[in-house]
Amino acid sequence: MHRLRVPQGTRSLLSLQLIGLASFSPSGMASISRALHCPAKCCSVKESGGSNKKSSVAVNGSGSLHGLKAAAAEVAYPLSAVTDKNAAIARQNIPREKQLVDPFRQGVIIDGGVRYRQTVVIRSYEIGPDKTATLETILNLLQETALNHVWMSGLLGDGFGATHGMMRNDLIWVVTRMHVLVDEYPIWGEVVEIDTWVGASGKNGMRRDWLIRSRLTERVFCRATSTWAMMNQETRRLSKMPEEVRDEISPWFIETRAVQEEALKKIDKLDDNAKYVNSDLKPKWSDLDMNHHVNNVKYVRWMLETIPDQFMENHQLSSIILEYRRECDSSDTVQSICEPDEESIPRDNNIRFLTGFSLAPEFLDGSGLLGTFDKWPTRYTHLLQVKGEKKDKEIVRGKTSWKKKMFKFSNCD
Amino acid sequence: MHRLRVPQGTRSLLSLQLIGLASFSPSGMASISRALHCPAKCCSVKESGGSNKKSSVAVNGSGSLHGLKAAAAEVAYPLSAVTDKNAAIARQNIPREKQLVDPFRQGVIIDGGVRYRQTVVIRSYEIGPDKTATLETILNLLQETALNHVWMSGLLGDGFGATHGMMRNDLIWVVTRMHVLVDEYPIWGEVVEIDTWVGASGKNGMRRDWLIRSRLTERVFCRATSTWAMMNQETRRLSKMPEEVRDEISPWFIETRAVQEEALKKIDKLDDNAKYVNSDLKPKWSDLDMNHHVNNVKYVRWMLETIPDQFMENHQLSSIILEYRRECDSSDTVQSICEPDEESIPRDNNIRFLTGFSLAPEFLDGSGLLGTFDKWPTRYTHLLQVKGEKKDKEIVRGKTSWKKKMFKFSNCD
């Protein structure tokens, strides 16, 4: 496992800052703060799978959501106390017990009670210029479903994760690596199913995997895997997994893998002699997440914005690998560096493949196709770093692969 | 009504660029492109409200979503054709007929078949540093629900809106004004209900209103209203509403208002002598929506980022009014200007009000409270403009009101 060291005294927690995902326990085993309490009637569903009238909901015809409404109305709740913290906790209504179904999140626990599945509609504001979900949307939905997995477990405390055993040992989760493969991007309005589950990673680590599928065709759009380690909150060093923690989380582990990876190759470190460099990137207040840290999705945005727009218009990301090195403070100024792999420029024979016949260059140009077949590399190496006085501080290394867009949703305005 | 003129030949459509909302018809009356077709079995629900077995879904206990799954599996769909446009349309599955229930979107048509209601869970990536939904999330959800209202109507064509009568008259919708009031921001994980409907605005305009409510307490978090006009796509001038268009859309109009507005006062125009100025704002590829225009939410982000972070940390927006003037091209460089209303600095007596007793300044400072009670103005005027060689081109004027955060969700990391 990659050894990850962070100097003591850095302001923010590595785990929470490195990636939006770190806002929750990826183990499905978040801590319960005993100070928090659930409102009078939780909508928990018995693990036996038996029907529970309090939470069961019929969505039939126009009667639809009224069942839910009625169930919600049964929860005693003081209207006058909405600015109070306990009232806020009641509004959040985080379950204290494991649930098998959440009708609001459209989530279910499947496969023997460890794997989570959620149905999601791609929203109008989650798509890019070509009407398909953006990579940012994909990453956001991975975060959301992982967190909802923990939510369903009945063990979610305040959203920052860590089991009781981890808390007793002053341990937190840190994400060290993430690999997302996108075969196809879902379209605006499309209904997808997202599965997520966890497994062991070596002796001391944990893996969280995801699959995003079309609900209609069952075609797999996206596969993703991530690796997590435990860090001591005080020493800022990686830690072994204590036995009591292993006992807590291992019942959730399954072997299934979303991504079959070959021997992992470390991503080369770039310097600022690279072809594309964006400097002076500064996080805004609106880029911060609930941990007051720059969100992981912002990192990826900074990475990808360093590639010229002309390339982005005609290509879609098919793979991204992220290797997290250290936290950056929200007051840091970040540099995004990107180097194309010149050997990854595709050969010329795919115009014929696409159209079935060869087209004269002037025709291609006239119909706007030429841009599509520009000689762009399709593999890039990335680095986000903080420029230091003596030494630059790496935040995350990345590697992306791209393919040309073969099909563009027409712009009918 | 405000007279809105846009020079002929500008590249993008005003309506589509001005606001993310403009990606759809706000009338609930989008056009149907006859070239598009629905897949074999649409999940439409009869308007009578009767149960339709194809689309009805039981979400009871662990059986939950399998009903939906089974329904989806009945739709014949060629797996091999996923890169084909018609296949993409099938995947989107836009209904051809009016629906009263959409189980995936958790939406229902209520109040005599004209008002739309959707249940939404606030997601982990939609919240800000204080664990509540951001204003951007609110605006995104207004867009999403308005669009889903049209989606449910069975009249949505390609998402860019306009009734058949409007298309015959070469008319498109433009949003001229928007007013959003937020009493309280929903919390991460909170379940909210969003209602939206349309009404007449003067002789030739349309109004779209929204209400966002807590599903648990029924407390209204947010009220919003917007005004729309019709513009001739060729002349770029505002148009009267043709009779045939009135006949199409007026059956959807209701009188109910989400916001009771007094006589509307035009927002003052700022110049760049204002207190806060951010120049050289450039849209990135990732800021563009499906119309290849800068999304309205990006506008609001640019507006609010001009206010210092120190203010943003301790205040929440309670009202925003936006007056749209003209489009900006995605290649334009934008300037964001902001002027505080110095008369809106609150009096000092609310520390006592909050705590019940007076606190010494050093105590307030030590506990971080002092920043909360800084002497910041609570009203701001905004302008986004494109700097022109001869004349600056206004994009949107804005006015915001803020209140101090009375309750902060603790950061427990």
Write a brief structural summary:
The structure is a homodimer of 413-residue chains. By secondary structure, chain A is of the alpha+beta class.
Describe the protein in words.
The structure is a homodimer of 413-residue chains. The first copy, chain A, is globular and about 55 Å long. In chain A, a hairpin with a 6-residue loop joins β13 and β14. With 413 residues, the first copy, chain A, is of the alpha+beta class. Chain A has three domains: 8-92, no CATH class; 97-261, Hotdog Thioesterase (Thiol Ester Dehydrase, Chain A); 265-341 and 377-413, Roll (Thiol Ester Dehydrase, Chain A), CATH 3.10.129.10. In chain A, strands 2, 3, 4, 5, 6, 7, 8, 9, 10, 11, 12, 13 and 14 form a 13-stranded antiparallel beta sheet that branches. In chain A, 19% of the residues lie in helices and 26% in strands. Mean pLDDT of chain A is 74; it is low at 1-82, 349-372 and 409-413. At the A-B interface, β1, α2, α3, β4 and α4 of A face β1, α2, α3, β4 and α4 of B. β1 (57-59) of chain A pairs antiparallel with β1 of chain B, so a sheet runs across the interface. Chains A, B: Plays an essential role in chain termination during de novo fatty acid synthesis. Chains A, B: Residues 1-30 form the signal peptide.
